[in-house]
Amino acid sequence: METDKSIRDPYVLYATAAVRLWVGSRKRMTWASYRETCIVDPAFEKEMIGPSSGAFVSLHLQGLLRGCIGTIEPVRNTLAEELATNAVSACSRDPRFPPETREELDDLEIGVGLLRPPVPYQGDTTWDVRRFGDVVARA
Q1: Which domains are delineated in the chain?
Q2: Alpha-carbon dihedral sign for residues 61, 7, 12, 129
Q3: DSSP state of 97
Q4: Which of 6, 10, 48, 138 has its CA 20 to 30 A from that of 83?
């Protein structure tokens, strides 16, 4: 089940199409195949075929987590590839859950989070970790 906001969000629409295609036919979404079936805003297309970013795709069923996979930094060439890959992984490869089924698709809520490149922490005490997150690594 999608909210009004998620229905209009182009990233969620793309991730949803990738999940539905994978669960229904075990085929992977490509930007070219998506573009053939949807009217796409030129600015959105430019972003999707441009350089990638870290991205998470989360799946919820009846308010409970059903799958979540993402990357904190890009591992694919384009954002379209990053989102499609993470969407398929969230519905089929999250080790905490069995793969999604066709019966669950209509009630599935899909969320997308795009990440900016990480920046070094400068000791700012006003940093809102809930809003901006954090990545801890050994120097």
Answers
A1: 4-116 (3.30.700.20)
A2: negative
A3: S
A4: 138
Query: What is the distance between the alpha carbons of residues 12 and 44, in angstroms, rounded to a whole number?
Result: 12
pTM of the model: 0.85
pLDDT tens for the chain, residues 1 to 139: 444 545 589 999 999 999 999 999 999 999 999 999 999 999 999 999 999 999 999 999 999 999 999 999 999 999 999 999 999 999 999 999 999 999 999 999 999 999 988 777 777 777 777 776 777 777 6
Structure tokens at 65: 């987590």
Q: Are 127 and 133 in contact (CB under 8 A)?
A: no
The pair of structure tokens assigned to 93 is 């490869």
Which tokens hold the place of 30? Answer: 């490509």
Q: Which residue has the tokens 């930007």?
A: 31
Instruction: Reduce the secondary structure of 56-90 to three states and give it as a string.
Output: EEEEEECCEEEEEEEECCCCCCEHHHHHHHHHHHH
